[in-house]
């Protein structure tokens, strides 16, 4: 995020706040996970592939007996997803879409073989999503955003670790998306996160926080 908490600007084009070195670091973190989750708005706005960038990391995963890329996961309340999005069209991996029960039939028909559409309650329940992922062998889930997803995982106290990279500039645009939205956060002055590490990545600062059950 920018120094004042924004993860993008308000223009149609995605603003890259990070650096090549940090993108590579993130790729390394991805390689340690079983699945990666973004919200439907991130798919619509950024059209991400969510694949590993490094062939060597992909090969090491395969050598360990796991898929070369991560299972892709998204959440949607209304089902507004395009089957031509790169989330669905790239990577020989499972794509899982969690949505409300009443949305499942139409969305499953629209996506066809591009993804499995799963009833996650009404409204979409994160504990229900996580429980289903567990049954599928997902033990380490990387949540990449956007702001609404970050807010839900943090306010519902479902995150174990936060890796926050701060860019050395300000955006100052109230119309731009922020790292989190307003909410009641259990990570409060009475129950703060624990700062586990601070790492310099060029002019960026990586802050690694442990949360809740991961504080130990």
Task: Describe the protein.
The mean pLDDT is 96. With 216 residues, the chain is an alpha/beta fold. Strand 3 (95-99), helix 5 (104-111) and strand 4 (116-119) form a beta-alpha-beta unit. Helix content is 27%, strand content 21%. One of its GO terms (biological process) is riboflavin biosynthetic process.
Could you give the order of the helices and strands?
HEHHEHEHEHEHEEE
Number of strands: 8
Helix content: 25-40%
In CATH, the topology of the domain at 20-158 is named Dihydrofolate Reductase, subunit A
The end-to-end span amounts to: 27 Å
What share of residues are in beta strands? Answer: 15-25%
Lateral strand order in the biggest sheet: 4-3-2-1-5
Main sheet characteristics: 5 strands, parallel
Helical/strand content category? alpha/beta
**Which CATH first-tier class of the domain at 20-158 would you pick?**
Alpha Beta
The CATH architecture of the domain at 20-158 is 3-Layer(aba) Sandwich
What is the average per-residue confidence, as pLDDT, rounded to a whole number? Answer: 96
Task: Write the SSE topology.
Blueprint: H1 20-30, E1 35-39, H2 40-46, H3 55-63, E2 71-75, H4 86-89, E3 95-99, H5 104-111, E4 116-119, H6 126-135, E5 141-145, H7 147-155, E6 161-166, E7 194-201, E8 204-210
Parallel strand pairs: 1-2, 1-5, 2-3, 3-4
Antiparallel strand pairs: 6-8, 7-8
